Structures are given as structure tokens and as C-alpha cells.
């Protein structure tokens, strides 16, 4: 038997995702799971019926590699309506296996050994392993303060002749903050005149609060000309297990993404594409989401009044950061574990996403849950 353990690993320091760790711990100890980002309420019955209808009509074989034309047309129209940019249906829009599939294809297509990729910390945990597996070098930039601001002067200093890509996330996971128009304009100034590719993770574009406006990279001409924008049906329509996402990009960039997409999954779920193509014809299906999730955010924060946790209300996403320094000084990973095992409530410690695992005594809680679940979670948190 060959000793494959001696083979060199592309990710020698790779670890099990914190999401898998905490969700597994929650199941093991029968804890309320506010760790991993998925709703515990059902997706719209109408959307499910549209999937069944597509199956019955025979849409069960391979669709086109980039997705069915009807869905790409709806996405092009949606982006044009919301952000004033018209992406070409035939060459600039691709349906992917979740937004993660789009992110993987984008990084793999363009990052070569020795290339540098700027990543803002705390960062969603799929970016860096993909960069490293492609031979790239992660250049981390830590966001500042409890409001997770970006020092654009620091970013400018990080850009070198080897910078291939810069990755942003807005609304931002895990912090729940949202890039402002001024942030995007600063980024536009930095990237204008360069050949740096912008990977813009916008999976929570429709979950944004307090009358803020999502500043998609597509709105800004010097960003749009270099931007690969990734989004998610799963996050938008409460069906993360369907693993349906998409990306848009200028044709020259999309041609390279297709080369990776074709070799990894080739295409994605056919009947679901027909369902989403029909569902998107009613804009209210996504336009009502800010109010829907803001109500849940506000309820969760209201339930926590009088507890020892402190917080700044999330600006977007369905995550709320809570600071626990008035309760204990223990490391966030240890506190999150103890909270799950002893108190039956699972969360995500934020240090695992920070540069050098900086511990600011913060935990991330997913509030995309039923009112009953949020009430039970708040009851536990009040006892601490």
C-alpha cells in the first residue's frame, strides 16, 4: 500500500471550517444553532412549486454551460434595473454552484504562483485557501475598530507590481457592515489605471438595513471594467442547500472563468434555473427582503436589551456581532465552545477570521431564524 501521507499537500495548514466545527458541536450537544449562516424557516412554496413544474416539464438534463438564456436574461434585467448596468446575456453572466463556486472559479482562473491577492480581514474562509492552492500569496488588511472601517491609505501601500487581485465583500460577512459610496470611490481611485482584478462578493446584496443602498461594484465604471461580481440565490431566497449562485463580469474575464467552470461542474441544476427565471419576474420577491430581515435583526437586539452583551446593529447580512467582554475575558474560541456545550447555544468566534487571529471578544450570531428560536437564544444569553 503506497504511503500517500508523505505526499506534499497544497494546503498543509488547512483545517476544518469553523462553520463545520461549530455546527457539528451544536448537533452533538443538542444546542440552538446560530452559528452557520442558514435560515431555519422554509423557502417560498411558490418557488418550490416552480421547481417541481420544471421537473415535470422535462428540464432534467444538462442545461447550457453558462445557464439557461431565460435566467441570464432576468439577471441582466435585474442588475440593469437596480444598478444601471447592462451585462451581455450571452457572454457576461454565468450560473454557478453557489457563490462559492463562482469565487473558486474566479480566483483559480486568474491567480498564478507568486501573484498577490489583497484580502480584508475578518474574511470569509473560502478566499484564502483557494488563493494558496493556486500558488498565490494572501496580503491581509485588517479592518479597523468595532465598525470595521478600511484604511484606504494602508491598502494603497499594500499594492505592488505583483498584486493580481483584490477581494471585497459587501454587505460584509462576518461583520455585517456595508461599504459606503465613498469606500467604493476610494477603491475606484486606487485601481484605476491598473490591471488588478476586483473580486466583489455581493451575496447579501438584498439584505441591507436602515434605508442604506447597496453599492455594487457594477455601479462604478472603473470598478465594473475589472470586476467579477458574485451573488447567491441561496442567501437571497432562503435555500442555501440548493447551492445556486451566479457571477457577472466583462466578457474577457468571463471567458477565463468559463474554462474553470466547465472543468469543475460544467453546469448547475437545470430545473432550479427555470424556477428562478420565473420567480425573478416578480421583483417584490427580493425587494421585500431588507424589511423582512431588518425586523428580525431588530427583534433579536430588542430581546438582548438588559443583557451584558454589547453591539452595534448590523448594517446588512443576517449576522449580528455581539461583544462579551463584560462577561468574561476568555478567548472567543473557548467561550464559543463553552456557550455551545454548557449553555446549548452555538455561535461563531470572530478571531478565526481576523489577521493573526486577533481576539476582540466578539461572537457572530445568525438571526435568520424563527422568532421562537431567537427568543430561546436570547433567554440563554441573558443568563450569562
From TrEMBL:
Superkingdom classification of source: Bacteria
Keywords, alphabetical: Aminotransferase, Pyridoxal phosphate, Transferase
Keyword DNA damage among record annotations: no
Pfam families xref list: Aminotran_1_2
Source organism of the structure: Autumnicola tepida
SUPFAM superfamilies, A to Z: PLP-dependent transferases
Residue ranges constituting the Aminotransferase class I/classII large domain according to the UniProt record: 31-380
Gene Ontology MF, one: transaminase activity
tRNA-binding as UniProt keyword: no
NCBIfam families per the UniProt record, alphabetical: PRK09082.1
Protein name as catalogued: Methionine aminotransferase
Cofactor(s) required for function per UniProt: pyridoxal 5'-phosphate
Amino acid at each position: 500500500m503506497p504511503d500517500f501521507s508523505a505526499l506534499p499537500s497544497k494546503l498543509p495548514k488547512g483545517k476544518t471550517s469553523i462553520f463545520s466545527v461549530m455546527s457539528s458541536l451544536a448537533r452533538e450537544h443538542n444546542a440552538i444553532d446560530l452559528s452557520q449562516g442558514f435560515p431555519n424557516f422554509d423557502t417560498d412554496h411558490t418557488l418550490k412549486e416552480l421547481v417541481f413544474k420544471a421537473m415535470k416539464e422535462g428540464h432534467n438534463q444538462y442545461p447550457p454551460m453558462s445557464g439557461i438564456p431565460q435566467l441570464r436574461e432576468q439577471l441582466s434585467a435585474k442588475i440593469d434595473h437596480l444598478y444601471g448596468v447592462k451585462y451581455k446575456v450571452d457572454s457576461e453572466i454565468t450560473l454557478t454552484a453557489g457563490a462559492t463556486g463562482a469565487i473558486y472559479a474566479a480566483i483559480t482562473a486568474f491567480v498564478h504562483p507568486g501573484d498577490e491577492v489583497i484580502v480584508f480581514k475578518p474574511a470569509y474562509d473560502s478566499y484564502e485557501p483557494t488563493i494558496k492552492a493556486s500558488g498565490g500569496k494572501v496580503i491581509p488588511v485588517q479592518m479597523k475598530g468595532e465598525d470595521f472601517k478600511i484604511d484606504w491609505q494602508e491598502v494603497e501601500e499594500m499594492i505592488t507590481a505583483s498584486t493580481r487581485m483584490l477581494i471585497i465583500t459587501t454587505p460584509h460577512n462576518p461583520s455585517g457592515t456595508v461599504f459606503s459610496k465613498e469606500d467604493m470611490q476610494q477603491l475606484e481611485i486606487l485601481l484605476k489605471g491598473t490591471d488588478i482584478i476586483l473580486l466583489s462578493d455581493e451575496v447579501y446584496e438584498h439584505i441591507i438595513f436602515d434605508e442604506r443602498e447597496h453599492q455594487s461594484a457594477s455601479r462604478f465604471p472603473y470598478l465594473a471594467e475589472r470586476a467579477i461580481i458574485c451573488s447567491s440565490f441561496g442567501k437571497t431566497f432562503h435555500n442555501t442547500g440548493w447551492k445556486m449562485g451566479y457571477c457577472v463580469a466583462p466578457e474577457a474575464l468571463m471567458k477565463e472563468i468559463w474554462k474553470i467552470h466547465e472543468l469543475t461542474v460544467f453546469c448547475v441544476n437545470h430545473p432550479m434555473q427555470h424556477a428562478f427565471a420565473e420567480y425573478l419576474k416578480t421583483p417584490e420577491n427580493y425587494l421585500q427582503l431588507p424589511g423582512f430581515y431588518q425586523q428580525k435583526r431588530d427583534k433579536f437586539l430588542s430581546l438582548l436589551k438588559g443583557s451584558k452583551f454589547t453591539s452595534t446593529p448590523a448594517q446588512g447580512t443576517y449576522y449580528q456581532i455581539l461583544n462579551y467582554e463584560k462577561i468574561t475575558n476568555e478567548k472567543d474560541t473557548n467561550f464559543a465552545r463553552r456557550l455551545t456545550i454548557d449553555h446549548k447555544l452555538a455561535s461563531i468566534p470572530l478571531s478565526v477570521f481576523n489577521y493573526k487571529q486577533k481576539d476582540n471578544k466578539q461572537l457572530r450570531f445568525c438571526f435568520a431564524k424563527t422568532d421562537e428560536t431567537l427568543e430561546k437564544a436570547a433567554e440563554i444569553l441573558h443568563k450569562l
